[in-house]
Write a structure and sequence with these properties.
10 helices, elongated, alpha+beta, 7 strands, 50% helix, 2 domains, YojJ-like (1, seven-stranded mixed β-sheet
């Protein structure tokens, strides 16, 4: 306790300012990568430093030597591999504001209204055999996918969704990304699945949905342009022939469970 009191007495205004600056920078960096898959790498780096510190305290010389050498070359490799992400992070820090208007934003819409708009749009697209591909962001951020399309940041509405996917419009041929209650972007590019076991009757949209579901925990809805069949893709699994009631149940589970956890999906590609 005496040591703690001595340390606290030695903290001056400069020390407090130093801590606040470092904390702010770390917070901004975390905010940038929290909406991308790079967050998993960030967690791994933190774990590595914890292990390195524990090895030093326990005087595990061989472990410390191995981790130290790994750190020396690993940091250089990370800088080279993640140069675009680092550049975006620095650009974000440069143009960000100290206070964000989102703290004073309006109240969010009820999820029931959002679900109604989504179901109405998807069912109508299905009835008219209009192809659609919608990606609902979950815990793993999709910022890298969003950047491949046109950012919108629009309120979810049935009319807007149907207008975007109307054939021969600029954004109809890509994927729409939805985060919470907002349409974040449209016309986005998704990775295609290389799974040879996928039904050959399924087109590019279904392969893109499978590819996206294999690298993220997103919920993905596909409307077939040929048949109008509605399909759910999640966790590398397809569930086809969904109707209005099934969609409502899926979105209620996704939005109202409180955690947006993984849905229970059985493979159904036929």
């Amino acid at each position: 306790m005496d040591t703690l009191i001595t340390i606290l007495k030695g903290i001056g205004p400069t020390d407090i300012l130093d801590i606040l600056i470092v904390s702010y920078v770390y917070y901004k960096i975390y905010k940038v990568i929290s909406k991308t898959r790079a967050i998993q790498l960030f967690k791994g780096v933190i774990l590595f430093f914890i292990l390195f510190r524990l090895a030093s305290i326990a005087e595990l010389r061989m472990v410390s030597f191995a981790l130290e050498n790994l750190l020396t070359y690993g940091l250089l490799a990370l800088v080279i591999l993640f140069q675009p992400e680092l550049r975006r992070a620095l650009e974000f820090l440069g143009r960000s504001k100290l206070f964000n208007n989102t703290f004073f934003g309006s109240k969010t819409r009820k999820y029931s209204d959002v679900i109604d708009e989504l179901v109405e749009a998807i069912v109508d697209l299905s009835d008219k055999n209009i192809g659609a591909l919608m990606v609902f962001e979950n815990d793993i951020g999709l910022k890298d996918v969003i950047e491949t399309g046109t950012e919108l940041d629009a309120e979810i509405s049935s009319s807007l969704i149907k207008n975007i996917f109307t054939p021969n419009t600029p954004l109809h041929d890509g994927a729409m990304v939805i985060r919470g209650e907002r349409i974040v972007a449209a016309g986005c590019l998704l990775p295609l699945s290389n799974d040879r076991n996928v039904n050959r009757d399924l087109g590019t949209r279904h392969r893109a949905a499978l590819g996206m579901s294999s690298v993220s925990d997103a919920l993905i809805i596909v409307v077939s342009e040929e048949t109008g069949v509605i399909t759910l893709a999640q966790n590398s699994v397809l569930k086809r022939f969904l109707d209005k009631e099934a969609l409502e149940e899926i979105f209620k589970t996704f939005y109202e469970s409180g955690s947006k956890g993984m849905l229970s999906v059985e493979r159904s590609e036929g």
